[in-house]
Amino acid sequence: MSKGQSGLGKSTLVNTLFKSQVSRKASSWNREEKIPKTVEIKAIGHVIEEGGVKMKLTVIDTPGFGDQINNENCWEPIEKYINEQYEKFLKEEVNIARKKRIPDTRVHCCLYFISPTGHSLRPLDLEFMKHLSKVVNIIPVIAKADTMTLEEKSEFKQRVRKELEVNGIEFYPQKEFDEDLEDKTENDKIRQESMPFAVVGSDKEYQVNGKRVLGRKTPWGIIEVENLNHCEFALLRDFVIRTHLQDLKEVTHNIHYETYRAKRLNDNGGLPPGEGLLGIVLPPVPATPCPTAE
Questions:
Q1: Is the pLDDT of residue 99 over 90?
Q2: Cα(28)–Cα(267) distance, rounded to whole angstroms?
Q3: Strand order across the 138-142 sheet
Q4: 189: Cβ contacts below 8 Å, ≥ 6 apart
Q5: What is the pLDDT of residues 207-220, one digit of tens each?
Q6: Which of 106, 206, 210, 257 has its CA 20 to 30 A from that of 176?
């Protein structure tokens, strides 16, 4: 899932993320088409193939927020959508005749887009992430990072990390879920050096040194999306699709979903009185007559 205020290039980055070199052959997307503004929560299935292995991903694009005069509780539609996916999974799971493989529409990762102001996070950003981090894995991303110098980018990343820590906002990978020393060492490096990922998205190709690359054209040259010297897009893509994909799914299932599941079952599944866990009214059990002594 992608989330953030309007105009930060969420849709563009999602297209770049899943329609770059890892999956370009399977894409019917026309780069000449202008990406329309997202006005509703929209889930799009996409198959990527790498090394002969196919993997189906669902990308959830969401409307920008923060444009209204009153932005009170603007995170509620997103939180509701995420919980609805947990509810779907729970209903399938408690079914007696459940499927061998339950369709999984749960949100395993939310890319939260931060405006490259170079200053502090907006109170709305902090409030939004505080609520969402309780129900989904949040990965903070600095959008349009090419608008900052290297020094500004480094300082801003440190400031964002500090503000998230001060406000008690846990982003993925969460410290308490590191399973062993090796995981902790690797994830500490990611948390202290990479987070939040400073990225640039683009839906246009340019010729650079005889190669076609995704990039943004400026008066002083081409900013190459997949060049680590230019931005951290490639790090983000590898992090989400390759190195931490399985762990994202496991943390979602074992932590976020289990928290939701325990609460719902403690509340009797939130089902109306007289209904079982399946959401089906249970028929009365016929009385068995006692055997008479002969």
A1: no
A2: 46
A3: 42-50, 53-61, 2-4, 110-114, 138-142, 197-198
A4: none
A5: 888 888 888 888 88
A6: 106
